[in-house]
Amino acid sequence: MTATVCQPVRYTSAPVIWFCVLLALTAGNVVAYATDTRPNVVLIMADDSAVDNYSCYGSTYFSTPRIDELARNGAKFNHCYSEPVCTSSRVKIMTGRDGYRNYVRFGTLDRSEMTFGNMLQDSGCATAVAGKWQLHGAPNGSLAPDCGFDSYCLWNYPETERSRFWNPSIMQNGTLLKTTDQDYGPDLFLKFVTDFIRQHKDRPFFVYYPMVLVHSPFVRTPDSSDGKARSLALFRDMTAYADKCVGRLVDALEENGLRKNTVVIYTTDNGTGRSLTYPFGDEERRGEKAYATEGGTHAPLIVNCPGLVPAGTVSDDLVDFSDFLPTLAEITGAALPDVELDGRSFWPQCLGRKGNPRKWIRQYYYPKFGPAAEKHGQGVNNREIIWAQNQQYKLYNDNSFFAVADRNETTLIEPGTGSADAEASRRLLRAAIDELPPKAAKLDP
To answer: Is domain 38-358 in CATH 3.60.20.10, yes or no?
Structure first.
């Protein structure tokens, strides 16, 4: 198809001229879409689910066959770290910036921040978000259009109420959906995503899918056999249903001929809910959401795109949530925002290359949950928690030093008592922490 060209006519009326201009622009856009072969991206982020809730990461209690399949036929990262709680993680993953630069308060993403949605929208991608929002709080929170999303279907958004599962309260593109007790929120979000994919299959798109699963309340799913089961059994059902949703999304890509041109990324926003205790190997592990521990921050990360990401790729490189935005930019060719970023792309590692691996990651966290700050909180209200870590060791700003394998951080490694590797890591991590400014830029406690 070629662009339409309007021949000049001396006395043509203004409406006709504008019609010709619009027709030409539209035709040009059709050509651009038809020849744009950039990969699409679907970023899925489950809610309240640590790395040990997945069978591809060693769980024998939770079964996640569709996610396992993505890991087996794509890239799996063993050392990805979120923040300990949802707002901190969502702000960081969306902006590519550490919390000391832009964390305001729980439930708020400052509207002045550029997000990966803005970046990809500016690059010409169709953009959509579906699932959990919770970023619109005072004093200057953000709505989906502020963050670069053309379309949205969201819970925890202005005018919505508490229910996210059965009879859910969902705002879709400015309209509060009418739902009943027979409607299951995760199914509605998934339908929105698959409809969007079908409607935009002829141009590059970006879908951000922050699931409402598997956050409490722990309730039955459409597949549950016992709606009155105990919380852990319902949580396992919810994990299985989240896996099913991922599989249905992948199937929709296949049905629309998009599977080999769509990068699917799966991660989670923080650790498992604190009310749960679940088996892992020979252990009974407690959920550590909100705590700055391995159980609170170690997240799965799986990247899959047949023919592009080599099957069976496994990486032990560190990944921080600030790394997602620059990775999306490299995948799609989008220009990075003109702000100071903290992340680096892990896309080369997805392709089986060396890339630019991190020597450490650094975290800044102001918990809403007060007990999380009891051990290492400093600064404002004695709640600011700062730490740096690599794959083996972790150092807090108060100089508490632990092995990462010490999941519950029970054995302090005193200065001079560790191995040569431990003491070298202590120095490396201290230098990383010391680079931080003396106060957070936007914190509003």
So the answer is: no
Phi then psi dihedrals of residue 352, to 5 deg:
85, 15
For residues 310 and 304, give the distance between their C-alpha atoms in angstroms, rounded to a whole number: 8
Classify residue 197 by its DSSP letter: H
Burial group, residue 272, by CB count within 10 angstroms (0-12, 13-18, 19+): buried
By residue count, the chain amounts to 445
pLDDT at 35: 58
Q: Which two tokens stand for residue 6?
A: 């309007």
Structure tokens at 267: 């991660």
Q: Which pLDDT score is estimated for 37?
A: 85
Would you place residue 228 in the very low, low, confident or very high pLDDT band (cuts 50, 70, 90)?
Answer: confident
Nearest partner of 240 among 65, 11, 440, 38, judged by Cα: 65
48: left (phi over 0), alpha (psi -120 to 50) or beta: left
Question: Is the Cα torsion angle 130, 131, 136, 141 positive or negative in sign?
Answer: negative
pLDDT tens digits, one per residue of 323-335? 999 999 999 999 9
Domain spans, the chain = 38-358, 381-434
Task: 216-220: list long-range contacts, CB under 8 Å, 24+ apart.
Answer: 216/48, 216/273, 216/275, 217/165, 219/165, 219/166
Task: Evaluate if residue 382 carries a pLDDT over 50.
Answer: yes
Is the distance from CB of 134 to CB of 106 less than 8 angstroms?
A: no
| pLDDT tens string 353-379 | 999 999 999 999 999 999 999 999 999
C-alpha closest to that of 74 among 332, 349, 317 = 349
Asked if pLDDT for residue 396 goes beyond 60, the answer is: yes
Question: Hey, is 125 helix, strand or coil?
Answer: coil
Residues whose CB falls within 8 Å of the CB of residue 209, separated by 6 or more in sequence, listed in order: 42, 43, 44, 45, 129, 130, 131, 189, 193, 249
Indicate the helix (H) or strand (E) that contains 264. strand 262-268
Per the CB < 8 A criterion, the answer to whether 385 and 369 are in contact is: no
Closest by Cα among 327, 300, 325 to 314? 300
Phi, psi dihedrals of residue 240, rounded to the nearest 5° = -65, -35
Instruction: Report strand pairing: 75-81 vs 298-304.
Output: antiparallel
**What is the predicted pLDDT for the residue at 3?**
35
Q: State whether the Cα torsion 365-369-372-377 is positive or negative.
A: positive
